[in-house]
Amino acid sequence: MTATIISAAASPYDRRKEVEEFENTKLGVKGLVDSGIHRVPTIFHHPPDSLPESDPEEDPIPVIDLSGPESEVVDRVQAAAAKFGFFQVVNHGVPVSLLDRLVKAVRGFHELPAPEKTAHYRRDVSAGASFFSNVDLFVSKAASWRDTLQIRLGPTLADLDAIPSICREEVIEWDKEVKQLGERLLALLCQGLGVHANRLKEMSCSEGRVMVGHYYPYCPEPEKTVGIACHTDPGLVTVLLQDQVGGLQVKHDGKWVNVKSIHGALVINIGDLLQITSNDQYTSVEHRVVANSHREPRVSVGVFFNPSLRDNLYGPLPELVSAEKPAVYRQFTYSDYITRFFKKELDGKSLPNYYRLQNE
């Protein structure tokens, strides 16, 4: 299959055919690297204007100490969520030793022998745990240079037998810790909006949790592709653990900036649904990951916090709507919302823009 992809330049390019050939290997991007390729296959080529610049801006992303006085923490979280849409937290209560073990365990899964790893390869996520490459592989114009282990954490944890044994213990421990952290973050964000601290929790917004363990292997031509294309996250809040390799970039004031890797810190970003429920008081921000030019693979572990009540209506909180500040978005069910997200490729902020009232 690899030889077929590499020789594609000599014959008419059939993207669908090459995508299917790549998918059928069940080996992901790491399988291409392990085969010894020296060129990035055409299905991974991104348009030049969408590729990262060589000299991004310095990192202005706030780092917030969650052990500080509560009123100061609320103010800093509110300011970061409104201005940047991204911030990092330290002294967050999750043991750093667990974070280190989790990164090691997720990397261990992706580096399993092929027969063990491919047993988990599937796009049907109903079992609660699956390994695949590119969630939007069949709808995107260009694939990205990463593989993913996805595990449902809530409202009910995936079947234990479905979670790979090499990372099962760490995932279970991580979910207990990250749920508590996520609930605290949602409470801080609610207080920043001037609504009851449990407002979002009561809407089931801490219950629908999905974990993704991304693996970004070495890329032989990082100038032709990306690790993850420019996008915003669809949920309320994302908690991200990244290793020391780096590569995450955030758009701030129209320019791309690197997000520093700080050992023991967790990266927090505002999702589209929180921008909507906050009636634009908070902002989701476009971000991406550059293709990995290091021989050392990059590993990150993200947890997306989403509502678990899929048929309930969501939109701007009534407390945040007034004659002076009318609703910016129409209401919708979360089921409709997330279905729309998965039917498109990862892109900019098309999801909140679709639900803006001005579009009706």
UniProtKB/TrEMBL annotation:
<protein>
    <recommendedName>
        <fullName>Fe2OG dioxygenase domain-containing protein</fullName>
    </recommendedName>
</protein>
<dbReference type="GO" id="GO:0051213">
    <property type="term" value="F:dioxygenase activity"/>
</dbReference>
<dbReference type="InterPro" id="IPR005123">
    <property type="entry name" value="Oxoglu/Fe-dep_dioxygenase_dom"/>
</dbReference>
<dbReference type="InterPro" id="IPR044861">
    <property type="entry name" value="IPNS-like_FE2OG_OXY"/>
</dbReference>
<keyword id="KW-0408">Iron</keyword>
<comment type="similarity">
    <text>Belongs to the iron/ascorbate-dependent oxidoreductase family.</text>
</comment>
<keyword id="KW-0479">Metal-binding</keyword>
<keyword id="KW-0560">Oxidoreductase</keyword>
<dbReference type="InterPro" id="IPR027443">
    <property type="entry name" value="IPNS-like_sf"/>
</dbReference>
<dbReference type="InterPro" id="IPR026992">
    <property type="entry name" value="DIOX_N"/>
</dbReference>
<dbReference type="Pfam" id="PF03171">
    <property type="entry name" value="2OG-FeII_Oxy"/>
</dbReference>
<dbReference type="Pfam" id="PF14226">
    <property type="entry name" value="DIOX_N"/>
</dbReference>
<dbReference type="GO" id="GO:0046872">
    <property type="term" value="F:metal ion binding"/>
</dbReference>
<feature type="domain" description="Fe2OG dioxygenase">
    <location>
        <begin position="201"/>
        <end position="307"/>
    </location>
</feature>
